[in-house]
Amino acid sequence: MKRGSVIGNIAKDLGLGIATLSSRKARIDTDRDDKRYCDINLSTGDLIVTERVDRESLCDKKSTCILKEELILEHPLELQRISIHVQDINDNAPVFSEDLISFEITESAMKGAKFLLTEARDADIGTNAVQRYIVQNNEYFTINVNTEAGGRKHGELVLVKELDREQKRELQLVLTALDGGSPQRSGTAVIHVAVLDANDNAPVFSDPVYKVSLPENSHANTVVIKVSAADADEGPNGEITYNFDHMSNNYVSLFSLDQKTGEIKVKGPIDYETDSSIELRIRAKDGPGLTSYCTVIIDIRDVNDNQPIISLKSLSNPITENVSPGTE
């Protein structure tokens, strides 16, 4: 909503006259010091937008996004809590973490072989997030789209015709991710397939999901967890490198990952009040490019690092000298 847009009329909802708003010094207060997203128009009683509200910045992937404000009235003092539910719109397109997705596939691969594709990320939620993937028409591959328990969708490239390196040494395909918004948005990446003579084992993680607990006051270089994948192939075909897969912008500065050992360390300040649980997606890739994925769920433990905050900044409340004892 644009600045100045009306969210609702507080005066009408509370049964207050316009004159009462001014005489009782009505104002909107918040415990945030950086931005004031809304204010009250004392001439109309309307609650209006004063700063652009970006749901993705405020709440990231949370299913509900709520701004909490307070209406303060004086003479007598009255506080009214305001909860503003920020609704998602389709203002973000799907984005792949890499523009070029490379595979090296042996010509001995059988029909039905599946190759997990890099996931596209959409900052929007629900139907406005990624809903399906399509790959351009070709005779060798089709695409399957799987939905995980949390609703996240990822694609698999499925071989429908055997490759013949002597006929075609490489393929270029366009992969498109589409969301379900209106109007619909999309993002693309190029799949490059190099046809080889043999790497028939992908890395396999020891656990598909790793869970760990971490106190929010953990110092830099604190080891969070070490993920581990094994590859049955030998030589370069079995050499594994680890990378974060589509890491949220909020977490880029918080964690580091050793590409060789799979060790995840704290890099920046962890704050329980910002995120009580963090989910990281890790990709293991062998030399020729076969990949597998695991999820690391980090439960952040709260420590007592915040002092109480009085959000009421000022109050004028005169008292006559002849007031009776016991008066509130």
Order of strands, main sheet, comes to: 8-15-14-11
pLDDT averaged over residues: 90
Helix content range: under 10%
Measured by DSSP, the beta-strand proportion falls in 35-45%
Unreliable runs, pLDDT <50, ≥5 residues? none
Topology as a string of helices (H) and strands (E): EHHEEEHEEEEEEEEEEEEEEEEEEEE
Sheet/helix structural class: mainly beta
Query: Biggest β-sheet, characterized?
Result: 4 strands, mixed
Per DSSP E runs of 2 or more residues, the count of β-strands stands at 24
Shape: elongated
For the record, give the distance between the C-alpha atoms at the N and C termini, rounded to a whole number.
Answer: 42 Å
Main location: membrane
Subcellular location: Membrane
Protein name: Cadherin domain-containing protein
Keywords: Calcium, Cell adhesion, Glycoprotein, Membrane, Repeat, Transmembrane, Transmembrane helix
